[in-house]
Amino acid sequence: INYQTAKFITSAPDISKLPDDTGIEIAFAGRSNAGKSSALNTLTRQNSLARTSKTPGRTQLINVFELDSGQRLIDLPGYGFAKVPLAVKEKWQQSLSEYLQRRDSLKGLVVLMDIRHPFKETDQELIYWAVSCEIPVLALLTKADKLKQGARMNMVLKARQAAIAFNGDVTVEAFSSLKRFGVDNVENVLNQWFNN
Ligand code: GDP
């Protein structure tokens, strides 16, 4: 699959406004600032496909990118802003769990987490939801360039141990947009999901 062909299709205010639930889509989620936009840009080799460094707390949209016919990448709003009102958080959780449960075309979820502090509470919740919906998860440990090789390997091994507790299809890989490593691993996992 050629990720470079990704093009922006639409921004949806909520899941009910997403394109028709046909074909195959893979969603990207993570705490804000986890490096999700950078990862999407790295994967697609497009510097400005997903916008980086958004203003925290702003109303966020679901961005939809299309690869080939009926293959989509879904950029979900970042979560974890301290200042977001509880009601907004609850609405977000509600719509996200609905999305995971009801979206037939959703064949995989990439959860992006800073390698220095992975599996925060909301990350874990999200992964549990996905596993309970039998959606495979790629736990992507971002900004891996921030750690030296030994520490990085250690974190990956620890995260793989931790991932066993989810009792589902959860793959853990390290990734760096800055140094462009881990891209092949991401492509391999996504290719499997698209081609299954
Ligand atoms: P998003 O909010 O999850 O979309 O995160 P962004 O992609 O906007 O990245 C948040 C911040 O992390 C920005 O300052 C990026 O420059 C930085 N960042 C993203 N990816 C990497 C990476 O691979 N390595 C390093 N060192 N910094 C990164």
Automatic annotation (TrEMBL):
SUPFAM superfamilies tied to this protein: P-loop containing nucleoside triphosphate hydrolases (SSF52540)
Source organism per entry reads: Idiomarina seosinensis
Q: Could you tell me what this protein is called?
A: Probable GTP-binding protein EngB
Provide the function of this protein. Necessary for normal cell division and for the maintenance of normal septation.
- Family annotation (InterPro entries): G_ENGB_dom, GTP-bd, GTP-bd_ribosome_bio_YsxC, P-loop_NTPase
Q: Which GO terms describe its biological process?
A: division septum assembly
Q: Which cofactor does it need?
A: Mg(2+)
GO cellular component term, pick one: cytosol
GO MF annotation, one = metal ion binding
- Domain (EngB-type G): give its ranges: 22-196
Keyword Cell membrane assigned: no
- Gene from which this protein is expressed: engB
Q: Which UniProt keywords apply?
A: Cell cycle, Cell division, GTP-binding, Magnesium, Metal-binding, Nucleotide-binding, Septation
Give the family this protein belongs to, as stated in its UniProt record: Belongs to the TRAFAC class TrmE-Era-EngA-EngB-Septin-like GTPase superfamily. EngB GTPase family.
